[in-house]
Amino acid sequence: MRFFLTISLLSMFCGFGSAEQLWSENFDDLSAGKLPPGFRTFTRGTEPNVEVVEIEGGKALLGRRSPAPQLVALVKDFDAPQKRVLIEFDLAVSESKGRAFHIWTFEPGGKDASQLNLSVQRGTLRQYSEGGWIDAGVKIVKSTSREKPVWQRIQVLLDAESDSVNFGSAVPGGEGLPHSRMAYRSELPIGGIGFVSGSRIADDAWYLVDNISVQTGVDLPEPAKAKPLPEVYPLWTGEKLPTDPEQMPFATGLEHRIIHRAEQGKYQFLHGASIVKYKDTFFANWANSPVHENGPHETLQGRRSFDGGKTWPHLEMVGPGFDGSDRHSHGVLFAHGDELWTICAFWNR
Question: Which domains does the chain show, CATH number per domain?
């Protein structure tokens, strides 16, 4: 199957044949159980949990979690900074609810990832950008064991001056590089590639990488443009806020009002407050438990204010709870059909 997928990919991208081969590695000539020669660690003093291992039919690079919280990766530096590269590799990942694989490019001497910041999370290839993790458009078939890995050929096209990264996968009937996503950081020369270890990989996860190919040159196409991220909604337009919270000024004209105070031995735990103004009346509700959060007999209670929030008389029982293990909890308030509604959570532990 791996042979078919690789041939399938090369046939789809035969137009790249005149590009320069920058680096290739299949790990078969390297010693198992050791870090491959010619690599280094991304952060000095860390020990990536990445090594060459025996697999059926040869060897591959195995990556797993290591406890260090820093940016931990096994890194391959390119001989010279590059402008445009086409990266291909065979990939197999384990079943995991967390992140099973992570790879990035970096600028020469860089301390952070650059254009490519790619991971596999819950069976999906994802690229990180300023908007967070974005689906890269490539689904990953997970492996149930390292002895019988399910391989998939991944391809990435990126350019130092482009704000887009293109992704493709060699699956039967696949098409070129149909998926374009925003680069993590652009306007940076490409200095190398890193295979991530560290705490960014889930405890129960592993990945295998094999048959790496990195091409460069002007014969590579320019990455297709990605759709820009949605405009960020400004939450603050004033002066830059100080980083020290003790130096942050208080807004003028504020007055504090107590809506409800918990009483020892009588619904003493409260949380999840929600408040809304509806037809000149303020409504507030929250979850109340006799002892602990989400404990038995939890309820949803509330109050109303008819004078702009100055006073909050008359405690109301909105969701009364239950005698058994069922319980109510906090929800949301919203206006609908000329009425004010609350979605009162109801659940069973």
Answer: 2-216 (2.60.120.560), 269-348 (no CATH)
